[in-house]
Structures are given as C-alpha cells and as structure tokens.
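Open question from group meeting: does this chain pack into something compact, or does most of it stay loose? Before anyone orders reagents, we agreed to write out a predicted structure and look at it together. Recording both the input and the output here so the notebook holds the full record.
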Amino acid sequence: MYTPVIFSAYSSVKVLTMSLVDGTKITEATYDKGFNQEIVAERFATGMFEQIFVHGFFHGDPHPGNIFVTKNNDIVLIDFGMVGRLSEHMRHSLALLVQGLKSRHTDRVMDALYSMNIVHDQVDRDRLRDDLDHLRLKYYDLPMSEISLGEAVQDLFTVANQHDCLVPADLTMLGKALLAVESIVSTLAPSVAIIDIVEPFGRTLIKERYDPRRFAKKVQNEVQDGFNTLRLLPKDVSMTLKDIRKGKLKVSISISEMKDLIKKVDRISNKLAFSVVLLSFSIIMAGVIIGGSLTAEPTILLQIPAIEIGLTITSLMFLWIIWAIFRSGRF
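Structure tokens returned:
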C-alpha cells in the first residue's frame, strides 16, 4: 500500500504537487482486467487495519474514488482530507473491543468502553449493560464470517450515544471507515472474512498491552513523574505561603446543591417583596379611608387627584410585581 510522493519544491500554500497515480479504481480492478481480486481485497484490508491498529493514523474516507490499484495489484491511497488519529491507549482498548465483539462477551465490551473513557459517571451502567447484552443477542446466531465488523461497531456506538456516552469523533470516523472497507472487500472478494484479517492485529495489541517491558516502562514513567512532583513540591509550597501572606490565596468552594439553594433564596426574596408591596398597598388604602373621613371641607390638595394617581400607580406596581414573581416560577 502506497501514497503519492509529494514534491515540496514544486508545492506552495495553494498548490500541492504529487506524483502521478497510474492505476484503476479499486472496484473496477477485476479478473477480466488482469487483477487478482482476492489479493487486492486482502492487501487493502490489511493495509487499512495496519494504519488503525499499528500506526494509529488512518485514512478517514476510504471510498472507491480514493483508492487505486496498479498493475502489480498494489494499493495507492489518495485524498487525505479526512484522517483519524488513535492514541496507543485507544488502540489497545480497541483491540479489547474487537476481541469482545468476536467472542460475543458483553463484559469484555463494557471493559473496553470503560478503558476508552466513553462511559462517564452519570451513565446508568446497569441499563447500558442490558442494552449491550441485547445487542449481543442480535449477532449471537450469526457465523463470524457473516458479521459486519463495521456495522457491529456502529451499532455499539449508537447504543453508547443513546446513553449519553462520550464517543470521540475519531472513533465515529473509524466506524464509518470500517463500513467502507467492508463494502469494498465484499464487492471484490465476498469469500474474504474481515474478522479473520483484523483478529491478528487485535491479538498483537493485546500481547503488547500485557508485555512486561511495556509495564516496566509505564512504571518507570510514573516513578519519574513522582520524582518531578517531589522536586517541585518545595517551590510550590513556598509560592503558596507567599500568596497566603499577601492575602492572594484563592479558595474555590463547590456546593453540589447550589442551584437548589439559589432557588430557595429567590423564593424567600420574592415572598418578602410581595409582603412589603402588600403592606404598602394596605397602608395607602387605610390612609385614603382615614383621610376621606376626617376631611370635611374640600381643600386645594384634595382638588388634585393625587390619591387616585397614587392608587393607580401603586396598583400597577403591585400587579407587575405579582406577575413577575409568578412568571419566574420561584414563588
């Protein structure tokens, strides 16, 4: 499997100059044109899985228009506008996922999802496991040669999305790429089983995962991180003490029920405002009644409808406050 050679001396920001690809579109590379369809299918699938499981960098849009076959049955990929990246940890977790799908083992699939950090704390894990077990039954009676790995991965991510799991974009792209690979392989060589090609890569990654040398390297890195933390600890403590002496120390307090507390405070303040307005309205009404009963002769002040204007304004304010409180839903 190859990619076109880039000629940097003849390329710029706007122009990308590559070597000419002299080949046939992969879906047209048939026996009657001198191609070996089984070899082409196996090389294409093996090359794609090597990108995914070995290098962690894969072509994200492997449709037939982006894949050509030379006269020697070699594969040439073009148009890397969409690519996916998988970290080493993600590749090892993906290998566990493939093994779980192949063995139809729900707990292994769940372990792979946990390892990928797809399942967060708010997910109902019992319900998720039940749905994954129901998905397993969908493929239970089918022979492995008839199971679409891409479709199974897509179904798995669909279930994860239904439970609000966090599926990375690169994994979604991976599912689509697997579907494209299987579609091309099934068109060229229906007898070639994708699962048989991908399984050796999964076994290799699982062996690497439990390789003592990898474990020793991981321990070494953790020890180095621990020493770095200890080395920087006196400096960090000194800076913290300086901030305390200068009064610059910032403390963040997180209250899990802060929203409920704010709602309760809003309700109390709204009820208090309602009571104050109601009391003011009552005092004004009492003043109007008492003033009207004590005043026997009309005065200049009483000739001005100040009381009526005040009553009108107070009534409008009272109605507006009541409407605002009830509209907030925190009464």
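Observations to bring back to the group:
The longest strand covers residues 57-59.
The mean pLDDT is 79.
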